[in-house]
């Protein structure tokens, strides 16, 4: 947790939610919303009862002190976890197959290929499992009725059938790859739809310097609130505002670029 | 070989540099980021090793396929809580194809299944835990006892718990500021039944299916000459 000032965290969370909505209208985010809200509420509620650090006592619960500080810490913790999850949801949307392979094929080409292949195999395997399941159901081997042992056995049998079915086919896949020249010596050219332009480098530099300011500010304790042992003041100091402003641009950068495009192409 | 050694040294050095940098720069010691960096560094060693090795195209496809099966294996068991045969698949792969393949399949299965179930800060931990599970199975296969069903069951049972204990660590590390021994014990106690279910389901899968799966994979390995021990090959070539 780098910044732990609640105002910082709330702003970051809101901005990231907007960024997420700008990707796909918040479709993925809505799927995660129940998990996210339950987890955050649990953390906020449980933390003050588990941890009795802090000096400002609200009340006693079974002889243990429940403090404002622990409560506050629970809130920052929950916000922090929510931020991480929202970032990962965006990450999943943005870093789709093509881009993932593009980035990782630079330094881990074989692993990247393997990951891509495994990702592609998953829907295929799911479809095959459905087919196998249909056949097995006709043969009277159900996953829904019977004792736990028979259910487990019939479920695993399906996966075993899937294994024997798919292993042979994997050899076909690799033969086809070989026929198309995978792994052969010599350089092959490939089309890459992504390249760095001068303006990309410029903005990368700008973002990096904003990041440095944020790190430096964080190191000096700006953007942070003292929670234990006693809740610190809420107020922002002068450099807090600078850090806050840098952080604001940094997190809303996708929104700014996307928004500008939207306005220009209207 | 020189290139291999150089990149391995670089990856190792990165872990140590990260330790120092994290300690110096973050005065709010950021244990979660630090732990993720170290785990990433350790896994990178395995990945780099695989990149450098000469591997057949077949072997790449087979490992990807096994990882996908490990990930998909969770689907038919979605109705049965805490029963998932992914660990069983990974252990079997480690036993048949060796430590490195076991690690790769374990790590990939975690990464790939999380692409569909939701990626998060727990992904590297899961990759690491399942990876080491496969790796340890591969390392221990040289002992004759691993062919024995009782030994294998004990192995699966123990790993059911170790996996859970490793996964608990990410919760502990993300809460480091809050750390008390009570908190640590609380987390480990609360995960006990979940770990027990994992351990028992490992036993069930191993005792029911370990024989047939090993036979299937072994036959396939022999038929297509996949992922064989270099040591074994040398003895065959010599004779």
UniProtKB/TrEMBL annotation, chain A:
Chain segments annotated as transmembrane: 32-50, 71-94, 100-119, 201-218, 238-256
Keywords: Membrane, Transmembrane, Transmembrane helix
Membrane topology designation: Multi-pass membrane protein
Alphabetical list of InterPro entries matching this protein: ABC/ECF_trnsptr_transmembrane
Primary localization class, coarse: membrane
Keyword Endoplasmic reticulum set for record: no
Domain of life of the native organism: Bacteria
Localisation per UniProt entry: Membrane
Protein name listed in UniProt: Energy-coupling factor transporter transmembrane protein EcfT
Native organism: Allobacillus halotolerans
Lineage, top ranks: Bacteria, Bacillati, Bacillota, Bacilli, Bacillales
From TrEMBL, chain B:
Membrane-crossing segments per the record: 7-25, 31-48, 60-77, 89-117, 149-172, 192-213
One protein family per Pfam: ECF-ribofla_trS
InterPro entries hit by this protein: ECF_substrate-spec-like, ECF_substrate-spec_UCP037395
Highest taxon, organism lineage: Bacteria
Record key words, sorted: Membrane, Transmembrane, Transmembrane helix
The keyword Membrane is assigned to this record: yes
Name of the protein in its database record: ECF transporter S component
Species: Allobacillus halotolerans
């Amino acid at each position: 947790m780098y910044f732990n000032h609640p105002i910082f965290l709330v702003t970051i969370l809101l901005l990231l939610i907007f960024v997420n909505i700008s990707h796909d209208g918040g479709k993925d985010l809505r799927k995660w919303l129940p998990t996210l809200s339950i987890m955050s509420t649990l953390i906020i509620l449980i933390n003050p009862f588990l941890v009795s650090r802090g000096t400002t006592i609200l009340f006693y619960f079974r002889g243990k002190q429940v403090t404002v500080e622990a409560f506050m810490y629970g809130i920052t913790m929950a916000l922090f976890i929510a931020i991480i999850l929202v970032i990962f949801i965006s990450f999943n949307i943005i870093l789709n197959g093509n881009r993932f392979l593009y980035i990782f094929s630079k330094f881990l080409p074989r692993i990247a290929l393997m990951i891509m292949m495994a990702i592609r195999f998953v829907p295929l395997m799911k479809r095959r499992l459905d087919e196998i399941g249909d056949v097995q159901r006709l043969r009277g081997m159900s996953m829904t009725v019977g004792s736990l042992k028979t259910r487990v056995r019939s479920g695993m049998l399906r996966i075993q059938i899937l294994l024997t079915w798919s292993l042979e086919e994997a050899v076909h896949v690799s033969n086809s790859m070989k026929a198309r020249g995978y792994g052969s010596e010599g350089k092959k050219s490939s089309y890459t739809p992504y390249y760095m332009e001068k303006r990309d480098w410029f903005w990368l530099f700008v973002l990096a310097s904003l990041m440095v300011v944020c790190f430096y500010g964080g190191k000096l304790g700006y953007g942070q609130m003292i929670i234990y042992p006693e809740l610190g003041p809420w107020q922002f100091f002068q450099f807090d505002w600078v850090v806050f402003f840098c952080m604001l641009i940094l997190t809303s950068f996708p929104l700014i670029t996307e928004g500008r495009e939207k306005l220009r192409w209207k | 070989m020189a290139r291999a050694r150089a990149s391995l040294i670089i990856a190792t050095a990165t872990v140590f540099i990260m330790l120092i940098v994290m300690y110096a720069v973050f005065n709010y010691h950021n244990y979660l980021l630090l732990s993720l960096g170290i785990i990433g560094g350790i896994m990178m060693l395995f990945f780099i090793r695989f990149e450098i090795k000469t591997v057949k195209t077949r072997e790449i496809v087979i490992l990807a396929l096994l990882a996908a099966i490990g990930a998909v294996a969770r689907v038919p068991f979605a109705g049965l809580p805490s029963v998932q045969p992914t660990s069983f698949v990974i252990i079997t792969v480690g036993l048949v194809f060796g430590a490195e393949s076991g690690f790769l399949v374990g790590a990939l299965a975690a990464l790939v299944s999380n692409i569909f179930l939701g990626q998060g800060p727990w992904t590297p931990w899961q990759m690491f835990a399942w990876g080491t599970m496969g790796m340890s199975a591969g390392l221990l296969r040289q002992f004759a006892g691993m062919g024995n069903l009782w030994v294998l069951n004990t192995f699966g049972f123990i790993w059911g718990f170790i996996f859970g204990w490793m996964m608990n660590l990410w919760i502990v590390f993300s809460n480091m500021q809050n750390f008390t021994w009570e908190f640590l014990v609380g987390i480990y106690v609360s995960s006990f039944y979940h770990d027990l279910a994992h351990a028992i389901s490992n036993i069930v899968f191993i005792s029911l299916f370990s024989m047939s799966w090993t036979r299937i994979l072994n036959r396939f390995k022999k038929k297509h000459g996949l992922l064989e021990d270099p040591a074994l090959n040398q003895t065959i070539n010599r004779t």
